[in-house]
Amino acid sequence: MIFDYNVIWDSLPLYFGGVLVTLKLLLISLFIGLLLAIPLALMRVSKSVFINFPAWLYTYVIRGTPMLVQLFLIYYGLAQFELVRESALWPYFSNASFCACMAFAINTSAYTAEILAGSLKATPHGEIEAAKAMGMSRIKLYRRILLPSAIRRALPQYSNEVIMMLHTTSLASIVTLIDITGAARTVSSQYYLPFEAFITAGAFYLCLTFILVRLFKLAERRWLAYLAPRKH
Amino acid sequence: MLNGYGSTILDGAWLTVILALTSMAVATVLGLLGAAFRLSPIKWLAVLGETYATVVRGIPDLVLILLIFYGGQDMVNRVAPMLGYDDYIDINPFVAGVFTMGFIFGAYLSETFRGAFMAIPKGQAEAGVAYGMSNTKVFFRILVPQMIRFAIPGFTNNWLVLTKATALISVVGLQDMMFKAKSAADATREPFTFYLAVAALYLVLTSVSLLALRYLEKRYSVGTKAAEL
Predict the structure, then answer these.
(1) Is B189 on the interface with A (CB under 8 A)?
(2) What is the CATH number of domain A5-224?
(3) Which domain holds residue B111?
(4) A residues 7..26 contacting B (CB < 8 A)
(5) In sequence order, what are the residues at sequence separation of 6 or more whose Cβ sits closer than 8 angstroms to the Cβ of residue A30?
(6) What DSSP element (H or E) covers A199?
(7) Can you give the pLDDT of all 229 residues of chain B as single tens digits?
(8) Is B189 in contact with A65 (Cβ distance < 8 A)?
(9) Maximal C-alpha separation, chain B
């Protein structure tokens, strides 16, 4: 028998548990990443070198190094310092879920910040002039005009980033978490059926990817309708 | 340097560079094939190309690496006895790594190349035909040189992602710089130092690539004018 269905059928609960872990990791890291990305994006569009440069350096370094290295630096690396091991935060830093979420959030914040900064820079000049002509303050200009429209226009690129992050969460299996990939690795080593185990994991990811693509299509239809080509 | 582990890590870095370059070569070939399939007027070829691109891009790199590396090995050894070959076949991690990365990034590149071919104005190929060039000549003399210019930004991006993704091959035991750093970290109990060194090396690699590809982009854009905003 070339493909063993029974084992996969029996391990489906393990995979569904993995789906929950994957989604939890994805949602937490995307949420924190987005919170970090907005101030970073604002820094990236600043004309002042002292504000712009730190944010540029942050995104450059994070985007220039592999996710796996960042994850290992946080999960294995920080334990090297006694200061960290004896601090009150050690229970968190010795926890794989916490470290994975933190590493993923930092990673996605850099990519998201660049997407948002690009979108902010692409704001039509007339909108800003109009806001100034209405006598809006800088803060009001950002809050009412720039950010809402920039975040909307960033949606198509952000959907790519979200799918990349879904794929990135598979690295959590390397630091012992049982997400979808972790479930597949467990099945693979328990029954020695690597082919079946990873094909199933791939199918789960494919479904999740399609669902995300679909959701973003709906979101774009809702929030980017004004940019869609005219139908008549 | 680095408790004497500096040179082993540099050896690993060399392997990473070689792995990335050979994988990119394989990926470029597969990407061009994929793009040709997807643009082909023959229906089943187009469907095949589309399936390849969609499925591979929908699954995480790590899962594909584990699938091809462990699953592929397993499959080969399940199928080989049926063909009358009874020895256990052990796949070389470097070869497996190159083909896995090439297979994955070929799908991403097929998207880049397809977009680049479609960005060439129709009149260009028509003009070539009007001059009496054969289809092959039109393809290599007119389409390919212009396609390269449109493909460079996407190609740069894919190259950077691929370079960083090679770190994942260490998970299946290829002794690249990530693997060497892990061994050194385990031996000296100084993980932060070694992973930081590897991060710095990757940063050098990506920075050099960015500069090189920016130069290439300038070269291929000679004679075109950028839109001024």
Answers:
(1) yes
(2) 1.10.3720.10
(3) 2-220
(4) none
(5) A105, A108, A162, A165
(6) helix A194-223
(7) 677 788 889 999 999 999 999 999 999 999 999 998 998 888 999 999 999 999 999 999 999 999 988 888 888 888 888 887 777 777 788 888 899 999 999 999 999 999 999 999 989 989 999 999 998 899 889 988 888 888 998 999 999 999 999 999 998 888 889 999 999 988 888 899 999 999 999 999 999 999 998 898 888 887 776 655 4
(8) no
(9) 70
